[in-house]
Amino acid sequence: MKNTAVLLLSTPMPLARKGVVAAISEFLVAHNGSLLHSDDHLDSGRDLFLSRLEWDLEGFDIPISDFDHYFKPLAEPFHIKYHLALTDYRPKVAILVSAYQHCLADLLFRHSTGELACDIVMIISNHPTAKPMADFYRVPFHLLTNPKDKRESEREMLELLGQDVDLIVLARYMQILGPHFVAQYLLRMINIHHSFLPAFIGAKPYHQAFERGVKLIGATSHYVTTALDEGPIIEQDVVRVSHRDTVEDMVGKGRDLERIVLSRAVRWHLENRILVYQNKTVVFV
Amino acid sequence: MKNTAVLLLSTPMPLARKGVVAAISEFLVAHNGSLLHSDDHLDSGRDLFLSRLEWDLEGFDIPISDFDHYFKPLAEPFHIKYHLALTDYRPKVAILVSAYQHCLADLLFRHSTGELACDIVMIISNHPTAKPMADFYRVPFHLLTNPKDKRESEREMLELLGQDVDLIVLARYMQILGPHFVAQYLLRMINIHHSFLPAFIGAKPYHQAFERGVKLIGATSHYVTTALDEGPIIEQDVVRVSHRDTVEDMVGKGRDLERIVLSRAVRWHLENRILVYQNKTVVFV
Amino acid sequence: MKNTAVLLLSTPMPLARKGVVAAISEFLVAHNGSLLHSDDHLDSGRDLFLSRLEWDLEGFDIPISDFDHYFKPLAEPFHIKYHLALTDYRPKVAILVSAYQHCLADLLFRHSTGELACDIVMIISNHPTAKPMADFYRVPFHLLTNPKDKRESEREMLELLGQDVDLIVLARYMQILGPHFVAQYLLRMINIHHSFLPAFIGAKPYHQAFERGVKLIGATSHYVTTALDEGPIIEQDVVRVSHRDTVEDMVGKGRDLERIVLSRAVRWHLENRILVYQNKTVVFV
Amino acid sequence: MKNTAVLLLSTPMPLARKGVVAAISEFLVAHNGSLLHSDDHLDSGRDLFLSRLEWDLEGFDIPISDFDHYFKPLAEPFHIKYHLALTDYRPKVAILVSAYQHCLADLLFRHSTGELACDIVMIISNHPTAKPMADFYRVPFHLLTNPKDKRESEREMLELLGQDVDLIVLARYMQILGPHFVAQYLLRMINIHHSFLPAFIGAKPYHQAFERGVKLIGATSHYVTTALDEGPIIEQDVVRVSHRDTVEDMVGKGRDLERIVLSRAVRWHLENRILVYQNKTVVFV
Lengths: 285, 285, 285, 285
Prior knowledge:
4 copies of one chain form a homotetramer. In chain A, helix 5 (131-136) links the parallel strand 6 (119-125) and strand 7. The two termini of chain A are 20 Å apart. The longest helix of chain A has 24 residues, at 247-270. Chain A folds into 2 domains: 4-86, ACT domain (Alpha-Beta Plaits), CATH 3.30.70.260; 92-283, Formyl transferase, N-terminal domain (Rossmann fold, 3-Layer(aba) Sandwich). Chain A is an alpha/beta fold. In chain A, helix 4 (102-112) runs parallel beside helix 9 (247-270). Chain A contains 9 helices and 13 strands. In chain A, the strands form 3 sheets. Chain A has a 7-stranded mixed β-sheet, with helices on both faces. The first copy, chain A, is globular and about 60 Å long. The interface between B and C is medium-sized, with 17 and 17 residues.
């Protein structure tokens, strides 16, 4: 188990130029924090400096619960916005799923091999199909009481989720979530859309792709916002199709894409690699 | 030089089942036409049988100018629609280009190596920049007299093109062509659009892609129809981008895509590999 | 359930030119066999004509058990070698696996969704790890009695496999099989090798790839022959890596490749799409 | 024109942990050097810290010719090895080419559009074919006097190259260069090999790939060392092939790969993005 801290930060460029890297580096050295990785990005259009830093907590002489107290005097003059994460913390993840289980099966298997550093604390579904899979991987499974009633279902889900869930993964959950629900998990809820967004927004994207005669189909993982399929994109990938592929073939090829694209997004989120600003992501990989 | 014939055909499936493959195969054998390649496709949604056949003309005992006379009795009962092409015919190609020359340079170089079996008979442009390149490859270059006047320019182009041009390639020609012009070259005019259609239709697609924060950018070659960027798609490809790519980087990466995607489309058209129906293409490769 | 027949055949080109396509097409029409798909390939270097034909058995007037009797008079003058398969036959598949379960989990999940048209009749392993997964999917699991003794283990496996297994899938089975065993399942045993063959033959290919500093890693599925990692290649794919990827990262990325590449190969084999000749495959997709 | 400095450096990890990032950042701030980009990599296997830093020279108060004098006191205690480059310096590049011109045409066109920030000072060839292309782009062309005599040709080339050439690009130069020549341009000579190395080392890789029946072909750009095709790999890419591709088709597809892979390597070298150690590259992109 790694015992490191990750700091994701942004600061306006004119201030950053005045030595923000030096200031933070000195801060870490002064407190005996051995820097393991740093990656930064300069968005010149928006005049923002964005950075991800990871350092070893072995020997770091600030109690992590007091980090803000020590870091604020440095952060304020540079107008730094930051988020601190500890890599030995295992985020609590809930998975929402409908009838299709390929993304769920994939996430659960990856989790079982240690690829996803989190605790999957529950699976919620509007269909009973995923129950045996949940049981096999020993994850509590909740079937929604009244899945046809969207409002009631969202209320039930919020109750089940409680206060402790850090991340919701929509593993082909085929219901559009209302703004109240979305607001509770802003930038903490990842969806997989089965098209290369922004092409084929909305329902039945493989059918749309087939009708249009495209030569590649795609999948997109993104944070959920209230604008349908328009949240910040985390990852995308495509696969080649031809006239020989029926809609069903596309669905089959798409399943492989969806699993991989969703699992990458979830892993990067869990590894604190994603910084979101102005509806776009920077993924530090 | 190959001396072969290519037949592209479609026929309603219920008729096709009654032995269309056998009938055509027998026809070829009877006339001493040695079949080199056959490829077919069954579109079950539209109940159509589509096929591409290529045979050796060496020994084929029908004069090719009389082909219709001999083939019609076979074609009619099956309601076959067909197009016959001779591979030793070199199509006459005109290239339209604006200021960006990367696609033009690519097509001309490929042509010089023998990769594109056609005669490039003229280059027409609304900018003088491509003239030296045209001269180097010894292709007549026409600068439009009054490029700001779209109507007049299209009239001038039609005059320059005359009656003999088989294919127009829009190698980053940055003007939208009017319906009258388009109608003259329906399914005989190939465009390269610098996005993964149907995402980012219209102007400045790389800027749109940058704003949206997509993780892949693409290029699409398609036949031009009167509906902007909505003609039958011939080929598409994508390349990965990240937050590190500026709009200018995307433009640069896109150039490589555009060249490859356009040249594939042109080659397949020249090799009579493309069958269009209902705004979609079947590419027999 | 489709009720069709697939014929995979090869014939020397000089004979094929004399109307083999016409002869077979006529044969099908004469016996009321409605052709659904045909795909062919001409290997000009080896002067061979290769073809895959699929037709509807509904109404086909030859009892399939007598097919040879009817087809031989046609096949012999053309020196046709052929293999007939019925799509409603579900091949019996055995999976061999060691400690890594990602390929096994993937195959079993795909099978459960109907993507692989076969019966998985047993899993054999030299490790107990896969037993719970086998139980979940209700596939009999056999742990080798004495896994250290290769000779004895192969004897035990041959006994377990019996006479009815049509295909063996080596889903990361980490033992080299002896020539006697291989000979029993020639062109009926598919392996996944975790490199882009022929690069990095043998053990620890990801370590070899890391040491060499390659920018892409790959996976290869192939039929097993007695020459290690040199059997006919069915499918390959690659993924990009960089200096940021440790050997462990490569192993993780490779797992996704291995699953996809192996499952494609297995599906194509089950769908009778693969024709092998001279240590190469033609995959009719 | 950017007016920036790039520093590529490596330092042993145990020393780096003691604040090398902070020390360098402070150094830049102290001398009014505004950091634009930094990217680093920790090779834990070799216990090395590698970094690329780029800063604005506008206002930097150290005369660049005296950089070593000011930086050494910092570098020495950390055992930093470094290379400083100025982005407004245009490296002098020589291209060696044989009969195939696709890579040459590509490099010259990219150079003409400003994509490659260098001066192409000469083209040397053992064939006269490239002369018109060289003339068109106004690059001096040298035909080797006695191309059959390898030893004499290498002597002639060294004389032509003189002392000022910073980089040699082997744009499909089909001669193996001797150790004496290679030694003069170690890590300053980039080759394109038409295979996915280490598969298909040596001559006729496409023929080897065709014989082996691989499903993807590749291209590899690498620095030339005395071990044939074994120098540090800079970039690789692949494209899918099938049984339908003849050796000639592979050669054609490969041309597109070679152009792109070689041009990426050359651009990254010119942009000082490549750090080589222990026969591997880190490419900071």
